[in-house]
Amino acid sequence: MEPRKTLDIADVLDRSNVSAFQIGIFILCGLCLIMDGFDVQALGPVAPAIIQEWHVPPAQIGLAISAALVGILIGSILFSMIADKVGRRPVLIFATLFFSVVTLMTSQVHSIGELRTIRFFAGMGLGGIMPNSVALVGEYSPRRLRVLLMIVVTNGFNVGAAIAGLVSAWMIPAFGWRSVFLVGGAIPAVIGVLMLLFLPESLQFLALRGTAQAKLAKWIRHIDPTLAVDAGTKFMVREQKGGGVPILHLFTEGRAVGTLLLWTINFMNLLNLYFLANWLPTVVNGAFGSIALGAYAALSLQIGGVIGTFLFSWLVERIGFIPVLGTAFVIACVVIALIGQPALALTPLFILVFVAGFCVVGGQGAINALAATYYPTNLRSTGVGSGLGVGRIGGIAGPSIAGLLLGIGWMPRDLFYAAAIPALISALTMFSMRWVIKPQDERVAGKSQVLAH
Fold it and tell me: What percentage of the chain's residues is helix, strand, coil (to nearest 5)?
């Protein structure tokens, strides 16, 4: 068969069944996100044990939690812009191996100062994982399954966070809190090696840059073995190659309002997510006198997030991002306000925590997918990463402010009343997205085609 002269990459993805090659990519990205979620959330369940061993006030642990989030903020924005310039693959591999090494080092710290420093550097590596994994999954998915696959693979983060709670509840009494970070560092090293061997680069990224045509032909044949292509085939994408600083282009071509709204939603939702993930174990331990119950509260939050992400992926395909997420954040506002009630028994507390995880943690995966569908290929990692980066500012503020307020005598009830307000703002902002999301989708679809030679 004569090799095809030109080939539209989007058509190939949309017409083909999902191949074993693509499934392998999704699994690698999902595994990476599982360990990302594990490491990001590990300090929350571990915090009560560190407080007991080192005899430090909760506010000091809050600063260590925030140090990791500052690192994630910087890493999200920095590595996302680098990935939109040099590719998803090298950034994902480097970030995975880097946070693996630094997480192993976390198990050897002996003071709050050391813990803050090492968690900052671990956060920088972790910041490069989510935006590039989401982008790569979206760029290897057919249009009909793109949102579903992005949300499902992103759910790996929630699975990892849930595993962190479960592993911590088992390992801390048996082996001490340092063992949690040994596990959290060793497994990503293996995943990083597997990615080095088997993870491909984004097809659209390579086509836009007109490089590595032989690799493009090879990977296209993995997706559809019936296609006759070779290194001389011209690969077409329906977008334009971008230049300059990617983050500045988030505010051009009518994207400014949508970008600001997405940043606001990320900020408010991640403020609540990190507040809940990092302080629920300590609050529950204080109320019931059990480190294990605190870890199980963190587990309940993340299990709610895992289930919520799967359900949101189904609902979004049928109803749309805006009504699904807007409603979820309204429910989250009510539930978070109820969590801090002082007379709450253990069972209703865990139910409320589960629902909060369902809406807040589960909703974050859908927010990431919304950002990935909103921006074109040359801005996708930057778009997702910058939103998460701004969101990390909320993630930094939530645990830090909560630690300070607990230190000056605030009761848990007051903290959770205050945390309900960001959920309400998230809901109002999400409903406001209806004025920008459809026009933007039409502009992206209408971009001119580009031939990669």
Answer: 80, 0, 15
